[in-house]
Amino acid sequence: DAKTTQPPSMDCAEGRAANLPCNHSTISGNEYVYWYRQIHSQGPQYIIHGLKNNETNEMASLIITEDRKSSTLILPHATLRDTAVYYCIVTSGSARQLTFGSGTQLTVLP
Amino acid sequence: GAVVSQHPSRVICKSGTSVKIECRSLDFQATTMFWYRQFPKKSLMLMATSNEGSKATYEQGVEKDKFLINHASLTLSTLTVTSAHPEDSSFYICSATWQASSYEQYFGPGTRLTVT
User: What gap in Å lies between CA A53 and CA A61, rounded to an integer?
Assistant: First the structure.
């Protein structure tokens, strides 16, 4: 599976959009981009995934560049409860395995 | 839907004893379950993958005789840490998938193991 690179930490003001970047320059054609988040001392929570088209659900939007070498997770109106570590994972996952990197610690500030 | 539970949420055991952690899919049948370990301020590390009725597949460096995994039904997997030592103290998290083609994993809340 392709390796991902994320900034170690980001801050965002409450109510503003949080834009979390992820680089995956070695992604191959059959690999999906997945985003999970982990609130402190809890299990990870699935957020969203995509292959090449932009995706939106009730939690977030996922913007994937045309060359698929990077993506951005957008939380449109961040709340204090969105403070968590966000993981960007790229996988073709024939075994459906997820490899977690170090992620981005997002802190939403009041 | 897609809720995964773990029991216990916290456990303290003495060095040399064994402890069992249960992972249950509450509202779906889990074709595959995964076990992860997470040390403080570190990321999740996959320990093993188990399919119902089959032997678990362990990641490199994970001792299968120390971390016994049983996946006897489509809703229950157990992880037994045998002869626990203080270095086994960690946050153990399970996850489950319910479709053969789905890459979405639903995670349990985790179990905090402390070995004294």
Answer: 11
Q: Rounded to an integer, what distance in angstroms lies between the CA atom of residue B85 and that of residue A28?
A: 41
Quick check: B49 and A102 CB within 8 A?
no
Q: Which residues contact B83 (CB under 8 A, 6 or more apart)?
A: B16, B17, B18, B66
Work out the burial of residue B38: count CB atoms within 10 Å of its CB; fewer than 13 is exposed, 13-18 middle, 19 or more buried. buried
Contacts of A103 in chain B (CB under 8 A): 43
Chain mean pLDDT for chain A: 93
**Residue B91: pLDDT band with limits 50, 70, 90:** very high
* Residue with more model confidence, A95 or B103: B103
CB contact under 8 A, B106 and A41: no
Across all residues in chain B, what is the average pLDDT?
91
Nearest C-alpha in A relative to B51: A95
Closest by Cβ to B103, choosing from A43, A49, A102: A49
pLDDT above 80 (res A108): yes
